[in-house]
Amino acid sequence: MLARDIMTQKPITVQPQTRVREALEIMMNEDIRHVPVVEGNRLVGMVSDRDLRHLAFPMLLQDTDATPALAQAVGDTMSGGVVNTTADADVDDVIDLLLEHKVGALPVVDEADGDLVGIISYTDVLQAARGRI
């Protein structure tokens, strides 16, 4: 089985200039934990609920002390140099990357140009494995 078989195509993304507050709202509203950061279609980073969790509660409480952090651009808080995979990667290799790097999701990029084509999370892997083990 290949990554393309179980990845989420056309994932929700943000841009580096997207404000942290907006990224948190997207994660909460869409019930997702990982959001690729793109410029155009090119992957430049990743932001996760782990990166922003210290701001989620203050945001919900409308804590004015958190306002400056929430107004920051995602590009200032995202993880750069993101571990990623390609659509043709074997799912076993995807699992190895998830475990090795202790991440919950991997962006899937086009091998030729680095454009984002999907995202694969541990949830996608578990759903694919259901009933097979």
Structure, briefly:
With 133 residues, this protein is of the alpha+beta class. The chain contains six helices and six strands. The protein has a single domain (3-129), classed as CBS-domain (Roll), CATH 3.10.580.10.
Describe this structure in words.
- The longest helix is centred in the middle third of the chain and has 12 residues.
- This protein is globular.
- It has a single domain, classed as CBS-domain.
- It has 133 residues and is α+β, with helices and mostly antiparallel strands.
- Helix 2 crosses helix 3.
- It has a four-stranded mixed sheet.
Which helices and strands occur, and which strands form pairs?
Layout: H1 3-6, E1 8-9, H2 20-30, E2 34-39, E3 42-48, H3 49-60, H4 67-71, E4 85-86, H5 91-101, E5 105-109, E6 116-121, H6 122-129
Parallel strand pairs: 4-5
Antiparallel strand pairs: 1-6, 2-3, 5-6
Main features:
133 residues; alpha+beta; 6 strands; 6 helices; CBS-domain; 21% strand; globular
> Which CATH class is shown?
Alpha Beta
Radius of gyration, in Å, reads 15 Å
Q: Tell me which CATH architecture applies here.
A: Roll
Provide the CATH superfamily: CBS-domain
How helical, in percent, are the residues?
25-40%
The strand count comes to: 6
**Unreliable parts:** none
